Fold these 4 entries.
Entry 1:
Amino acid sequence: MEFDYLVAEVRQEATAKANHVLNEARKNAKHLSLEAKKEADLILAGEKARALEEAEARSSIVSGARLKAKQVVTEARNKLVEEAVEDLRRELLEFAKSREYKAVFSKLAKQAVSVMKRDCDLLVAKRDLALAKSLGYNAKPFDMLGGAIASSKDGLIRVNNSFEALLEERNDAVRQKAFEELFGKKGK
């Protein structure tokens, strides 16, 4: 009987040790599982941060490319508007050679001289000298497209009715009109 008692005691001790080892293994497994989860969470957070940085970098590149594209389009549009304004200058120069120009010249010269309200010289394009003299003005040659500039005898006061001055005076409106003609009212 003592033998049965010894076997039962050994079994009981073995069961207790096995339970203890099993509990320790469970604790270690739980601890390892928590550590693995923490490590996985850190890796996941790092990957999310890296993916977010990449997305932001790509977004920045795309935004930069869009801005550059808008700049290129704007520069091209501005160049076309400049070309349209230059075409207008050439058309004015051609107009100054036409028959209809005499009436316009006469009106611009008369207005410039009347604003001066004193004896003055009339500065005109070289080709307009004869026209100005035929209208009774004391004319001097001046480098311009057309029109007239009334100038005081000392040259300190001028009333500028040259085509260039009229274009400059209406610069914004001329450019706006050219833009609308080229691209429509909304510029699309």
Entry 2:
Amino acid sequence: MADPAFPQPFPHSPRSPGAKIVSANIADAATDAPVAAATRARARRRRRGRTTLEAYLLIGPSLFGFLAFLVAPVVIVFVLSLFSWNLITSPQFVGLANYRRMFTDSQSWHALLNTAYYVVLNIPLQTVLALLLALALNRKMRGSKFFRVIFVLPWMAMPVALGVIWNWFFDPRSGIIDHVISMLGFTGPNWLTSTTWAMPVIASVNVWQYTGYTISRSRCCGRRCSSCSSPTSSARSNSSTPCS
């Protein structure tokens, strides 16, 4: 038994064994806290680096195509535009002389005017038509999925095949369009060689081909479909087309 004359130290006093253990634990915790924080920081950096690597691996093919088939050709064409070269003799550097010649040439401005004319014929009609059809397809009616497929098929077809088919349609001698017009008692023009009708014909074919794609995007954004803005939601979707 302990002598009353010599009382034992208080359990939590600095001289008690319990106090020493607590102090040691506190010291260890104070020492381990920075180590744990550094370990967590390294783990976060490792996860962030892995995520970044996975992202670059996923966008790598598209990024390569963008750089190889869009950026690189533009840069090469710009560099070549600074030279005078007939592909036989060695190229000669002329600086901006080609651009000065282009902006002073009336044919260049005529080409820009034709481009603007094509855009005016194509974009407004395609956008308005696609929006109207998208609003109609948003209604739950019988056969809507069939019409979605029909509208998208021209966009999925090969441009070369479409060119051959429409060239036959507008042929002035054996084309089906001139044949129908002649049955009505009229004579059709030379659609693809006429300075009046060639551009509207080309614009109408382009509207026919790409309206289906514009419909799909318009329906997607009109219904606030998550596949437009969320790649994760798009990956979870089992649909083959947006907002089907």
Entry 3:
Amino acid sequence: MKKKICKCGCGKEVTWNVGKCIWNKFIHGHNNANKGNKLTKEQRRNISIKQGGNGVLKEDTEPPLCACGNCKEKVGWSGRGYWNKFVIGHNRKREDIYRELREQDPPLCECGCKEKVVWNKNRWNKYVVGHNARGKPISEAHKQSLLKANIGRPSPMKGIPLTEEHKKNIGLGNKGKIVSKETCKIISKNTTAFMNSSKNPNIGRKQTEEHKRNIAKGNKGLKRSEETKRNQSKARKKYLKDNPEAIIKMSLALKGRIGPNLGKTFSEKTKRKQSISKKEYFKDPEARIRNSCAQQGISREEWTHFVSCDPYCQIWTKEYKDFIKERDEYKCLNPNCRKISDRLCIHHIDYDKKHCTPWNNITLCFSCNSRANGNRKYWQEFYTNIIKNKYNYGR
């Protein structure tokens, strides 16, 4: 609040009247100093300057025209040492000028994005919202203050569906942007905390078949780089290692479920595509080694060679294999056989091709033999118990 000048013309500032809550008109004792005397022009000019005016007196200049631009009337004296801008009540006539300005085409954003700005009260904005800081470096202190200010604040875009054009613009804006490792760790930590919290709307929620089809449709044809695949694989392995209960949940969820391709007949075109895809995949030696490690249940560091290239024992002949099949009555001994294949083969229970004793061999169909290549510890124990119970081997 500006201090006022003593009305006696001395040019000194008056004090505040605490009892009446107003500024005093005079300094104590000055109220009778110029009683009956007129103030000189110099004294009045000094008072005008002290009160925020420009020192111009009323009789020195002609009154200017009203700033509304339409009436061409002269304005009145303010009493504070300057001429008014408008005739009383004419300041609203400015709205006609604003209306004409608003009807014009909006100017482009000054950041150079070529987007049009919006109207703000009585003028056009210079920037599109959020574009005023484009290209300007933000200090670390500013980043921290923004972060603290936005904690707990709901997103302004919550519940607003994004258009395809908006999504493309967001993607183009983030393309090539380098994110620091610290930022990645913060994002990962916050995402993990949200996914495991009660705020996650998908916890305990069963997705509809239509939703699943939409997800599959969205992921169809999506090609991920080898680096992305490796990162996803590492993240999944780490998650399953840190959460053993997740493996049990997955096992229970998949228990008794029949494969989606079971009983389906594929066209010759699809078979050729699958064959070409597998051949291209296994051209990479590392891919073959990874497949071998997965079948043997070992890590990449423990892998030494391809077990399938090892030679069989000396008694591994057609007569010996027929002997095992005759013993097993020429049928697959897996009680949970899916009855897909009629062709039979001899399976080594401990996966050692040189160990050809009768209690280490069992007759299986081609389908069950292929299934036994994965989760070897389970199948080894499973088929060992079948041989023991059927023929009393090892008892």
Entry 4:
Amino acid sequence: MFNVVTQLENDAVEMRKVYAGAVRRQIEAGAPIIALEADLMSSMAMDGVHKDHPQHVINCGIMEANVIGVAAGLSLTGRVPFVHTFCHIQSGCVVRYNAVVDGVTLPENRYIPSTERVGPDSDLSRYRQVDRGALQFSEEVAATNVELVRGYQALRNEF
């Protein structure tokens, strides 16, 4: 289904351009890829891919944890989601809207409030464990996003 790169790219090429080029080639070869962006379109050189193939690139905003939920829903429809981000978010974490996690791995089950900036100098122990309510809310948001994607796909199929 996918073409495997058999030759390494020249080191002088930016990784973001390699990523965008690989996604573009797969889309143009007919792969059912949906590239999900977490407001990183320009950072990952995906603007051009989105312009040429808008049905294959969705900008979900700064909501990495929810992007994973959307990816899961898309995979149920036969699509192949491609997701990337700049940080490593462990299982069970809730990262609220407009929070920034940069250059650090969050421990499992941590709650990061809205507008918080978490970086290498942050004391990760000060972030509390995710409570049941926050986790349930995040699951509901992810489920809603999946339903929105299904709705958008149904609308597209009507035209």
